[in-house]
UniProtKB/TrEMBL annotation:
This is Large ribosomal subunit protein bL36. SUPFAM superfamilies: Ribosomal protein L36. It comes from the Bacteria. Belongs to the bacterial ribosomal protein bL36 family. One of its GO terms (cellular component) is ribosome. Keywords: Ribonucleoprotein, Ribosomal protein. The gene is rpmJ.
């Protein structure tokens, strides 16, 4: 899981990447390729 300041570029890495919010933390998840996971916030 990468911690980044901007998730816009991370979302475009794979067509299956989705942007979601959980408890104030913004996450990029990708079910087909989990190495593209990223988060913003603590």
């Amino acid at each position: 899981m990468q911690v980044v300041s901007s998730l816009k570029s991370r979302k475009k890495r794979h067509k299956d990447c989705k942007l979601i919010r959980r408890k104030g933390v913004t996450l990029v998840i990708c079910k087909t390729n989990p190495r593209f996971k990223a988060k913003q916030g603590s």
